[in-house]
Design goal:
This protein is an all-alpha fold. It has one helix and no strands. It starts with a helix and ends with a helix.
Length: 50
């Protein structure tokens, strides 16, 4: 019984950890996208003012 409960908790923790990791990947990707768009916008502005 105790080992079953422990396994269940571990599985739960594992999937929560996976979810957290996926959220972190998503946020990292969003940050990269925003940086890229920021750079593109900056380049466009620099090009306009020339």
């Amino acid at each position: 019984m105790a080992s079953y409960e422990a396994r269940k908790l571990l599985k739960q923790g594992g999937s929560e950890l996976q979810e957290t990791y996926l959220v972190l990947l998503f946020l990292e990707n969003a940050k990269i996208n925003l940086t890229t768009y920021g750079n593109l916008a900056e380049n466009a502005l620099n090009h306009q003012t020339r």
